[in-house]
Amino acid sequence: MSDLMVTTPIHSASVLPEEPTQASRFGKARSAQSGALLEDYVELISDLMTSGGEARPTDIARRLGVAHATAIKTIGRLKREGLAVAKPYRGVFLTEAGESLAARVRARHRVVVDLLLAVGVPFEAAESDAEGMEHHVSDATLAAFARFLARD
Q1: Which of 44, 64, 83, 102 stands the most exposed, by the fewest C-beta atoms within 10 Å?
Q2: CA distance 112 to 84
Q3: Which fold, 26-150?
């Protein structure tokens, strides 16, 4: 058990939200999980292109800690979604839509990391935690994070 003290009221776990409300929340989470995979790939491909000039499936697989076959399958999905193109023996390149998505994901990541750092989370933990949070936080919450960070 943590010795962390909670200073805000917690709603009773025994009070369920209305069914449509709860279904909407779970649906949003499932949708975010599905999109998170593609977002991680486009962000990494963009980073690899910027730092080394190319994004090879082998490098993508190693950096994401997945099997080469898994990376190839997901790259295929990126291509079908219009986010990337792959050229034989040349690697993976993002389309304009892929670059745009990568930039949005990178900006979301930065705001989440900055907020976590502002509340005292150590840098490595903030970077690691932001990898999951950036995909699930709503635009309204992200805007609130940015407003909070803008205060002096």
Answers
A1: 64
A2: 26
A3: Arc Repressor Mutant, subunit A (1.10.10)
List Cα–Cα distances, 22 to 4, 15, 49, 68, in angstroms: 28, 12, 41, 37
Asked if 39 and 101 touch (Cβ cutoff 8 Å), the reply is: yes
Query: Closest Cα partner for 39 from 98, 117, 111?
Result: 98
Q: Which runs of E-coded beta strand occur in 58-131?
A: 84-87, 91-94
How confident is the prediction along the chain (152 residues), in pLDDT tens digits per residue? 455 555 555 555 568 878 777 777 666 666 656 688 899 999 999 999 999 888 999 999 999 999 999 999 999 999 999 999 987 788 999 999 999 999 999 999 999 999 999 999 999 999 999 988 888 888 999 999 999 999 85
Residues ≥6 apart with Cβ < 8 Å to 123? 117
Q: pTM (2 decimals)?
A: 0.74
Q: Name the one residue in this structure whose structure tokens are 């009773």.
A: 12
Instruction: Report whether 117 contacts 126 (CB < 8 A).
Output: yes
At 57, list the tokens.
Answer: 């499936």
Task: Provide the b/e sequence for 10-25 (b: ≥16 CB within 10 Å).
Answer: eeeeeeeeeeeeeeee
